[in-house]
Amino acid sequence: MATPTSASTASAPWDPGFEEVLRGALRLLSPDDVLAPDTCLSTAGMDSMSTIDTLMRLEDRYDVAFPDDALTGETFATPGSLWTVLSELRTQS
Amino acid sequence: MADAHRVQDLLDQAVRAHPAATAVRDRHGAWDYTALDRAAHRAAAWLRGRGVAPGDRVAVRLGNVREFVALLFGTLRAGAVFVPVNPAMKEFHVRSVLADCAPRIALTAPGEEHAVAPYADCPVHPVTDLALHAPEAAVPDPGAEVPAPASAIPAPEATIPAPAGAVPAPEAEAPGDADDLALLIYTSGSTSRPKAVMSPHRATVFAARAIASRLGYRADDVVLTAIPLAFDYGLYQIFLSALAGAELVLTDADAHTGLMATLHRHGVTVMPLVPSLAEMLVRLAARDRRGPAALRLVTNTGADLTPPLIAAVRGAFPSARVVPMFGITECKRVTILEPDGDLARPRSVGRPLPGTEVLILDERGRPQPPGAAGEIVVRGPHVMAGYWRAPELSAQRFRTDPATGERVLHTGDYGHLDEDGHLYFHGRRDDMFKRRGVRMSALEIEAAALDIPGVRGAAVLPPGEGRELTLFAVSALEPKEIIARLGERLEAAKVPPHCRLLDRLPLTANGKTDKNALAAIVEHVTQGEQLTAAA
């Protein structure tokens, strides 16, 4: 679990909507815990069902479609990896 | 063929009949039956080299990867007993499993030895130590190479014996008796510690063949196993695929988002489902922009697919026929319904396996007529050999018919048969209870709740210490409304006074509703209320 630091809060590399979607899926992350780029999503409570929830919420919110090769465990490993993939999709569309 | 009674004979037969057909595929690649056969021989030789002797247990903690399959057959060829350990199993249980089965050696995924080593009183190796993917030259007998064109021209029946000589076992195999143990399969269930069902070769092969005769997997089938191989439902997909010469595709839970891509890329035709997996698949199919996948058969056991979920599966995969089944590890499989038989007999789990029998007995052991509920008792060659190192528990459940001397399994599950011998499952003994003098099961209340339009999930917690009968529902409806609608469907005593809404039901590692977690929710809330009252 990531240790809270003010720096990571201030410099979160993603927008608030992304954080809101992720937090909704992380039942083991309390509101006080910081979501860092390298937080392990499965340790924070993301299971395969909530991964699929998250995928669909992100696709809705950002109007993108994750291609097959992005639908891997690596993409959904951390907020950082997921945001990187999502950002690339948004640039393409 | 009919003489094959050892589990590894299934692979021997498959490699003879389908040497160049794809046997097993994971995310890193595929093996044909010849390559799988070699990897299994390599595993057997490596295990023998580490001192593994017939009867020794080999604990294998691996996800759904090809090496699991090679180690399964390799362990059996070494005459040893294969003990799968689910990577999702918590440390607490891993410790008790390892202490209980006392393996001669344990294998894990590379880098995961630490998940086993602290609790294992034996050497622990990463599976990479076996070099199962090493170049063919390292195989003791490379002369067994089968030319690729064999796959392009299907061999007629008469030529099948010919390749048999071309694929000799690289080394002498432990002779092995069909009554020796093949597998120890740990189940959780009603006892506090996991207990292992002892599966002898003969019973395992009988069960696999009996299931195969009902499900009819074909040589051109591609079977996607996304459920863990460490559970018998997943494990038997290996045997069923080998019996048919089909292709087994393996994926792990972390690849579930890619399930539709896997279905399309590999032309998957058969998929075993538990409810959580079915639900994910239906949701993924809804966002998929390709046409429907080529699924022709989906099976279900472990926990029931509810009628709304079956309907959703049919909607998403119009070409798939649905086969509900009922099984417990103690005899592997009890019943299988005809494909799409749920349309004519909703909630039936089907007829007994061929060559086996299901009886419904009352508390005094008297057979019950069709329609009357009682304990489900199973008789046949698929009844396993009891629980490992648990003679008392074994004696309770695995009994001998006083008249015929046959072994009979008292399942502890309740249900009834209809006039045509189709079984309906009511619940575990633990799920049966009395309230206001009326006998009922959690399952019937759950079924009634799921019948209410708008209720997507339901679980019932029986009344217990300091706790009333409680319904947990996944629904947009108000709890009050759900209770009112239940009152239209059930007699008053069976209507829970409390209904709590959840986003989804908590699940155990094998996809069943986690009733302990539900009990914890009730307890937590009750304590909270008391604290509020005291304040």
Automatic annotation (TrEMBL), chain A:
Provide an example Pfam family for this protein: PP-binding
On whether Phosphoprotein is a keyword of this UniProt record, the answer is yes
The Carrier domain covers 12-90
Keywords from UniProt, A to Z, are: Phosphopantetheine, Phosphoprotein
The domain of life for this entry's organism is: Bacteria
Protein name in UniProt: Carrier domain-containing protein
- Origin species: Streptomyces varsoviensis
